[in-house]
Write a structure and sequence with these properties.
The complex is a heterodimer.
Chain A lengths: L1 H23 L10 H5 L11 E15 L3 E14 L9 E7 L8 E13 L2 E6 L5 E5 L4 E7 L8 E10 L7 E2 L6 E11 L2 E7 L9 E16 L8 E21 L17 E9 L7 E2 L4 H10 L4 H4 L6 H8 L5 H15 L1 E2 L11 H7 L1 E2 L1 H14 L4 E6 L17 E8 L2 E5 L19 E5 L5 E5 L6 E11 L5 E9 L1 H11 L4 H9 L5 E9 L8 E9 L4 E3 L2 E4 L21 E2 L4 E10 L4 E5 L4 E5 L3 E10 L2 E10 L3 E2 L4 H16 L2 E5 L2
Parallel strand pairs in A: 1-10, 16-17, 23-30
Antiparallel strand pairs in A: 1-2, 2-8, 3-7, 4-5, 4-8, 6-7, 9-14, 10-13, 11-14, 12-13, 14-15, 18-19, 18-21, 19-20, 21-22, 23-24, 24-26, 25-26, 27-28, 28-36, 29-35, 30-34, 31-36, 32-33, 33-34
Helix pairs in contact in A: 6-8
Chain B lengths: L30 H4 L4 E14 L2 E12 L11 E4 L3 E11 L5 E5 L5 E4 L5 E4 L2 E4 L9 E11 L16 E12 L5 E6 L6 E5 L2 E7 L17 E6 L1 E4 L2 E4 L3 H13 L7 H11 L5 H15 L1 E2 L1 E3 L10 H7 L1 E2 L1 H14 L5 E5 L19 E6 L6 E3 L19 E6 L2 E6 L9 E10 L5 E10 H7 L7 H11 L7 E10 L4 E10 L4 E3 L2 E4 L21 E3 L3 E11 L3 E5 L4 E5 L2 E11 L2 E10 L2 E3 L4 H15 L3 E5 L2
Parallel strand pairs in B: 1-10, 7-18, 17-19, 25-32
Antiparallel strand pairs in B: 1-2, 2-9, 3-8, 4-5, 4-9, 6-8, 10-13, 11-14, 12-13, 15-16, 20-21, 20-23, 21-22, 23-24, 25-26, 26-28, 27-28, 29-30, 30-38, 31-37, 32-36, 33-38, 34-35, 35-36
Classes of the chains: A alpha+beta, B alpha+beta.
Chain lengths: ~675, ~625
């Protein structure tokens, strides 16, 4: 036993030594690109990588000067190996800079770059010159600095560095992961003690870097010149400050690439990154100024913002209209419906997000358009005015990622929550086909923060819990020529209805017919009718007649067909062999088919698919029941998926479950000519 | 395969005059113009005053009623500009459906943004556009524009029918020529539409009903009315030119835009000479040069030259190792010159659709540049923006269309390589085994050539996980397909791409009682049927012919007995042909053979139903099944 331990230790030490040795042999100083780096033709840890970040150094610090005070600097030094042509895109870099006005615009400084190639065993370099650098005003908010490296060939190494200078105290997220692997990453963040930052590593990431904290004393001195004409004390003054700097360091090696997968709401949610949020400013001899530190205080800060809370208290602009609208209406549900529909018809969403009002609710009301906050804060104010307990819910949209950290920037959207006896509903008036508790998919991102009156707040779950139902009844009659004719009646509720309305409510009957016929061989649809196409508070009903050719096969004496006809799903949407990240289905659902088939004269049933129930623990079930009833064949087929999120560890089973469903749906009924 | 575009330098639809208040009310639109429309152009008046060879003033007034969200883009409320363009007037007013003004936008209310399009790293073009959120539909927008152009190579076109799902009530186009310069005019497809000619320089259209797109219909601009104008004496960003015909225009491009750009450094000249000195023919030399260029460069689009039309200097491409289609083609030409091989810069449309340069009417057009190497009757076309493309291969992006060759003597129109149905070949061979549980295991070999090569070869550069997914998508009708192995062979010399795969599907055949049903056509099924139209209004087109040949040997488990096999099929018609046969080699071994040819062609709309029937029967027969019965 003792002996074993010893051996283990020795091996580990030896290994460590080897690794340390191989690391040391690399020189990460700018310009010190080695032959070995140029000769490498594949990333030994990830052979699928088209390029690899050999080294990335990111440093953030604050410069100080007497005139401008603290100015944020962020330097990036990056060395990238490009293995093949698919990796060439890494040789072009676009840096986005904020550009609001001259005084609050960011700048890119000290850009330099080289491309290294191995030519006849010798390292040759090509410098990035002015003709490879481009500056562009994108619009009134942003500008970009782009550059593209010269002489890119398979196997080359590029290296560049630049500094972003920013007048803002807010620090952008630091990404530890890209879609290519990183071999070595060094980070240092130095912030003056006057500014407090909350820090958080994305806990949803699979890769977790290790941060170390330290402190260091810093001293700055500067000279102020006195204006001679105004002052008797001509000349200059020497000033000095001493303060501590908080330092975060991180040194990582071999960070794997972040590879996107389908059915992930936002791959960025799983990226390894460090968020730093300015939580307070405390200058010497000045009071402590806090921004955020807890969700409670973040929420309060937002609530106290005039563009948020202030908008909720204005009522004069809509008073008369709402009085007229709800006069004599007592039922809360009815009142809510009236106000919700009124606002949706009166004020249209201009496609901008935000939890603060852009142009103010009063003007949005008058103009008839506004951002998310203009519309939903107005909705809340109107509901409250009508005596309903409505409150705002701060949300981070799917694109914005999940707010795991008390930051104001964590939110970018606001919706409405009504809490009343027996009537708890979420509302978003920016989407034309949303309804009570049916929100646009962009808002379905884990949880939201409800702010009750007086600013107290708590989390509420946004993931839909109850299944969205779809029920289809299919009648079919088999004709003597083996064509089939019949009727379909389909009812869709909640999210099922919203997504169908979003895609098809605007279509003409012809358009709908084309859509149903699409990809269904031999199907001809007529008499299509969509009820409640635009009234999102009622179930959507879709009815049509059809005839279907070529779906019954006559082989020998027998007839073969699948009872779901053209309604069967033919493809498993989950094809990948494995998954790293959860599948996001947006909402749970429940699909039910009731099929009634009239058999052709002169034929009897030879075989039916077996009745079956497939269960999938905690996630769903599938039932398949077929029975003969005189000249009729009746089937009930149902699929329930009770959760919106499928975890990676359940993926294999889920894929198999779906695969079995598809198989079952394609099973044939065999009819035999009766004697 | 990565091909890229030349900058679509200008596409400005462009006016003024009396305004009828009725046009501001959505209620006055004739019913027939509202059908199938997202928007109606109520009034569009373009008035262009040509002042000199290097200047025209463009006036436009436009009234559009928008019915729904999809109609917003039909407002046409934007203008592109650069340093040769001065915008004098730019304003818009919004009216509600009753014709009452609800909003007004002045020049400064328009958004200003960089006009860089996808794939371009930098361009000095900019755009001003209106960002308006409609508060109710329908609404009517009045847009007024006056622009002073000091570059005349791109002249405003007139497209009285603007696109699908938008109809036109009134549209008028008038040129006042005060320059003394001859203007050439070409009108196309006017005869089928209600268009009146008032003079050579003045036209109007009324009541043009909207069209909707239909499956397999040719691209909109092949049948829509269009008027194009070229100034015989023009200027492009300070460079003057003559354009009476393609010969002139090509000569101008050669002398003013290309000459002087092809100088190479001495060492490169020497290197090229050395590399090609042992090659015997021009084509051999060209291959060496093409390979040299592919290894040395990459595609980066930077649009700063004259109107996006002058290539980067060859020596800059050499130094930086990148360029756009112009720069890379011109660089390759310079290298070929050094090797003693003649070649010509060629302006073309790069598009999967077959879009030609108009051989009868010379004007600034095209969106891409390639290189042409003359070689007896059949020259070779070189796509210089791809680092992996086989030498001389152009199927799918620049094949079968007219291109403008720039020669020292002037411009010439030449048609590019046509790939025939025989050349666009895909063969699929498989060894399949069916077990008694209905599982199949198979070794499949897919070989593609011509256009089908272009459709298949891209997969080789993807990571393994995506390659497996691509196969699962390609055979999406096989449930639970698992890919055991994949290997590729890309023969760039013969231009044949081979995919070798081994796959398994555990329950491929369907069980019904004692029987197993399975599709013999496991690996090349047509599953999509063209959309059905009650009244088809447009002709249809198959742009490229293709041939698919399949042969599968199917070995069946000894415990199964073959009960029924579908009959052999053979169909032939104007759209192509389809055959399959099943041959019994032994009791448990079958050979399935299939051939499906699609013919290239332009067909009248009356034949669409027949075409649809043909594809429907292909889908049906590809879905045929063999029935086996268990003998245990």
């Amino acid at each position: 036993m003792y002996f074993n331990k010893l051996t283990m230790k020795t091996t580990t030490t030896l290994l460590l030594f080897l690794i340390a040795f191989s690391v040391q042999s690399q020189n990460y100083k700018f310009g010190k690109v080695s032959k070995e780096e140029l000769q490498e033709n594949i990333n030994p840890l990830d052979s699928s990588a088209n390029a690899t970040v050999l080294y990335r150094n990111e440093s953030i610090w604050f410069d100080f000067s007497g005139e401008s005070g603290f100015v944020q600097k962020r330097s990036v030094h990056e060395r990238i190996k490009i293995y093949n042509k698919e990796g060439y895109k890494w040789a072009t870099k676009k840096v986005r800079l904020y550009n609001k006005s001259n005084s609050s615009s960011e700048d890119l400084l000290s850009l330099k770059g080289y491309t290294y190639n191995l030519v006849d065993g010798k390292v040759e370099d090509d410098k990035l010159k002015k003709d490879g650098i481009f500056k562009e005003e994108v619009n009134k908010y942003w500008k970009t600095n782009s550059f593209t490296m010269p002489n890119i060939k398979d196997g080359c190494v590029i290296e560049y560095s630049y500094i972003i200078s920013s007048p803002f105290l807010g620090i952008d997220d630091i990404d530890f992961q890209f879609t290519i692997p990183i071999k070595k990453f060094d980070l240092s963040v130095k912030t003056p003690e006057y500014f407090s930052y909350n820090k958080l590593l994305n806990p949803k990431a699979i890769y977790h870097p290790k941060l170390t904290d330290s402190k260091r004393a810093r001293q700055e001195s500067w000279t102020t010149r006195r204006d001679i004409t105004r002052s008797r004390d001509a000349g200059s003054y020497q000033s000095e400050i001493k303060f501590d700097e908080n330092i975060i360091n991180c040194n990582e090696e071999n960070i794997p690439a972040l590879k996107p997968e389908p059915y992930v709401s936002n791959i960025g949610n799983y990226k390894s990154k460090l968020s730093l949020e300015l939580s307070a400013i405390k200058y010497p001899n000045e009071p402590y100024k806090t921004f955020s530190s807890s969700w409670e205080s973040v929420t309060r800060t937002i609530y106290n913002n005039e563009d948020f809370g202030g908008q909720l208290s204005k009522t004069s602009y809509f008073k008369d209209d709402i009085d007229a609208l709800v006069s004599g209406v007592g039922d809360i549900q009815q009142k809510t419906g009236l106000i919700f529909d009124f606002i949706r018809s009166k004020v249209k969403w201009n496609s901008f997000y935000g939890y603060t009002s852009d142009i103010g609710v009063r003007r949005a009301y008058k103009d008839g358009s506004g951002n998310v906050a203009d519309i939903n804060l107005m909705l809340i104010a109107m509901l409250r005015y009508a005596g309903i307990n409505a409150n705002p819910v701060l949300v981070s949209t799917r694109d914005n990622g999940i707010p795991l950290f008390p930051t104001r920037n964590g939110f970018n959207y606001v919706i409405c929550l009504i809490e009343s006896e027996g009537f708890n509903v979420l509302l978003d008036a920016t989407a034309p086909f949303s309804t009570f508790n049916v929100l646009p998919t962009r808002t379905l991102n884990w949880q939201g923060r409800v702010i009750r009156e007086h600013g107290s707040s708590t989390w509420i779950n946004l993931t839909p819990m109850s299944p969205s139902m779809e029920a289809t009844s299919l009648n079919a009659k088999i004709n003597p020529d083996f064509s089939i004719e019949g009727k379909v009646r389909q009812q869709k509720l909640n999210y099922r209805a919203m997504s169908y309305r979003n895609a098809y409510a605007g279509l003409s009957d012809d358009g709908l017919i084309k859509n149903i016929e699409e990809d269904n061989a031999g199907l001809t649809v007529s008499e299509v009718n969509m009820e409640n196409a635009k009234n999102s508070h009622l179930p959507l009903q879709l009815n049509y007649d059809y005839t279907l050719d070529n779906s019954i096969e006559e082989i020998g004496e027998n007839l073969y067909f699948s009872p779901m006809l053209f309604l069967a799903s033919e493809e498993n949407p989950f094809k990948a062999e494995s998954r790293k990240f959860p599948i996001d289905l947006s909402y749970p659902f429940s699909d039910k088919f009731m099929i009634n088939i009239m058999l052709p004269e002169g034929y009897a049933i030879e075989s039916l698919p077996q009745n079956e129930k497939l269960e999938f623990d905690g996630i769903g079930d599938f039932t398949y029941l077929a029975q003969q009833n005189g000249a009729y064949l009746q089937l009930t087929i149902a699929l329930n998926v009770t959760t919106a999120i499928i975890l990676p560890q359940d993926y294999q089973n889920f894929k198999q479950f779906f695969s079995r469903i598809i198989e079952k749906q394609s099973e044939k009924i065999v009819l035999k000519k009766a004697m | 395969m990565s091909f890229r575009f030349l900058l679509p330098a200008f596409f400005i639809i462009f006016s003024l005059h009396a305004q009828n208040d009725d046009l501001l009310k959505a209620t006055t639109i004739p019913l027939e113009l509202m059908i199938k429309s997202n928007a109606v152009v109520r009034f569009d008046n373009s008035n262009i005053e040509v002042k000199a060879h290097d200047r025209y003033i463009y006036n436009r007034k436009r009234i559009v009623t928008v019915f729904n969200e999809k109609g917003i883009s039909d407002q046409g409320t934007y203008v592109f500009y650069d340093s040769y363009v001065k915008i004098n007037t730019l304003e818009a007013r919004i009216y509600n459906k009753n014709g009452n003004e609800i909003k007004k936008f002045k020049k400064n209310d328009f958004e200003d943004a960089s006009a860089v399009s996808g794939g371009t790293l930098y361009s000095d073009d900019r755009v001003k556009y209106l960002d308006y959120t409609p508060i109710s539909y329908p609404y009517t927008i009045v847009f007024e524009l006056e622009v002073d152009y000091r570059s005349t190579a791109f002249f405003p076109q007139w497209r009285p029918l603007e696109g699908f799902y938008v109809s036109t009530e009134n549209s008028e186009y008038k040129i006042v020529n005060n320059s003394g310069i001859t203007l050439r005019i070409k009108t196309k497809n006017f005869e089928d539409y209600n268009i009146e000619k008032h003079s050579d320089l003045h036209y109007s259209a009324t009541h043009l009903s909207s069209l909707r797109p239909e499956a397999y219909s040719p691209s909109f601009k092949t049948f829509a009315p269009i008027l194009r104008v070229a100034m015989t004496d023009f200027e492009m960003n300070g460079v003057r030119g003559v354009n009476n015909n393609w010969e002139d225009f090509g000569k101008w491009m050669h002398d003013e835009l290309l000459t002087g750009t092809e100088v190479l450094p001495e060492n490169v000249k020497v290197e090229i000479k050395n590399l090609t000195k042992d090659a015997n023919t021009d084509i051999e030399k060209a291959k060496i040069v093409y390979n040299y260029m592919q290894n040395k460069t990459r595609y980066i689009s930077v649009q700063v030259g004259i109107g996006g039309w002058k290539p980067m200097l060859a020596e800059d491409v050499e130094r930086l190792g990148y360029g756009d289609c112009k720069g890379l083609s011109n660089y390759t030409k310079a290298l070929l010159d050094e090797a003693g091989v003649k070649s010509h810069y060629a302006v073309i449309y790069g598009d999967r659709d077959l879009v030609s340069i108009d051989k009868e009417f010379s004007t600034t057009e095209g969106n891409h540049v390639v290189l042409y190497v003359p070689n007896n009757d059949e020259g070779v076309w070189l796509e210089c923006t791809s680092q992996t493309n086989p030498f001389g291969f152009i199927a799918s992006f620049t094949d079968d269309r007219d291109a403008l060759l720039i020669t020292p003597e002037g411009g010439k129109i030449v048609h590019t390589t046509i790939y025939t149905a025989q050349e666009n070949l895909k063969t699929t061979n498989a060894e399949v085994s069916l077990t008694k549980d209905g599982a199949i295991t198979a070794d499949v070999v897919i070989q593609t050539q011509g256009y089908q090569y272009a459709l298949h070869e891209g997969v080789q550069n993807k990571p393994l996980r995506d390659q497996k997914l691509a196969l699962s998508d390609y055979w999406s009708y096989i449930n639970n397909l698992s890919v055991e192995s994949i290997s590729y062979d890309n023969n760039k010399e013969q231009i044949v791409f081979t995919e070798n795969t081994a796959v398994v599907s555990p329950r491929y055949a369907t069980k019904t009682g004692k029987r197993l049903l399975f599709h013999p056509n496991a690996f090349n099924r047509v599953t999509k049927i063209p959309t059905r139209y009650k009244n088809r209004s447009l002709d249809f087109e198959i742009e490229r012919g293709t041939t698919d040949k399949d042969e599968y040997t199917i070995t069946i488990d000894p415990s199964l007995e073959i009960e029924a096999v579908p009959n052999d099929i053979s169909i032939e018609n104007q759209f192509g042909s389809y055959q399959f046969s099943i041959e019994k080699i032994s009791d448990h071994k079958l050979r399935y053979k299939r051939q499906f040819i699609r013919n290239k062609g332009h067909f009248p709309k009356e034949d669409y139903a027949k075409f649809r029937d043909f594809i429907t029967s292909v889908v049906k027969h590809d879905n045929s099944k063999i029935v086996c019965i268990s003998t245990n």
